[in-house]
Amino acid sequence: MRRLQSGVAVCLSLLLLITVIFPVYADNIQEQQRKLQDVNQQIDRQRSSVNQARQKEKTVVGQISSLDKDINKTESEIKYIDDRMTYLEHNIDEIQEEIKASEATLAEKSDILGKRLVFIYEKGGDVSYLEVLLAATDIKDFLTRYDLLNIIVEQDVELIKSINKEKKELSLKKCDLEIKQRELANIQTDQIGQKEILDSQKEEKQKLLGSVRQEKKKLEQALNELEQESRQLEAIIRQYESGNTSSQAGTGTFTWPTPGCAKVTSEYGMRLHPILGERRLHTGMDIAAPMGATIVAANSGTVIFSGWMSGYGQVIIINHNNGLSTLYAHQSSFLVSKGVNVSKGQAIGKVGSTGWSTGPHLHFEVRVKGTPTNPIGYVK
Known about the structure:
alpha+beta; Helix Hairpins; Glucose Permease (Domain IIA); 2 domains; ten-stranded antiparallel β-sheet; two-stranded antiparallel sheet; 4 helices; elongated
């Protein structure tokens, strides 16, 4: 009987636990599930915002890249116009000198012909020739006078033909001069138009860069993109060097990459980024140089990359087969391509302002096993 009572008591206790504790535990699980759902929704919203911001940043970077290409194209067109203008101006000067000489020759021949005509007119035209013949003393004298008169007449005819020829040639030269002067005037107008387009393109690029300065989120994303590009370049270098058994990097001195342009405007190390406004590592040094200045290989090696990277713009990487590589960014044009072996001091490209750049300069890096290091210890 006691055992039965004890068993009933245990059952009642268990029933109490089930009816009191389990509902509380179930409510707690549901609450945690709701919280987890809220957190997941917040994560999704943040991920969506980040993706939208990244997409927006890519759009800005794409616009700047497109503008850089348009600027290069416009500059090429302006250079062609400048070359054509130089040729036309030189050609016009030559034609004007030829016209001047032709006019002098024509004036001289016309003066001779004029004097001959005046002489003939004063002597009565053809009568003078007849008088000359009739004044002969004998047949021999007559034939001599006749031959001389024929020579004089032939000379007069040749003189007239020569004058007519000179006049035609002079007319053609003046016509050619007029055509070239008209073309020169037209391309001068074209040059003004192209320069206005170039100014507009550069202004638009500056506005885009300015808009990026003002948006913190875009700045951070752009910085991350630049750092990602640096890591990509590092991977390219290491991939090239994989399998090689080159020794540790030496301390040999490289040649300066921009002959005649030695001013360093931004050194290697932590700095406030000139466009993005954040303190980050500057992986190389910036060398002031005019647009189109020649860039040379700091040392002999192989070009392992030659192409576009949005932050760096147009960039070349040279591997020097001793654990060292050099990088040349923001170029306006390339003079060598991937896979080419280059010699120390050989021209490889031209200074530009492509990518994330506010003006023409060379961004120069030295990398050891792909990792950027201070280049000042390697170059003169």
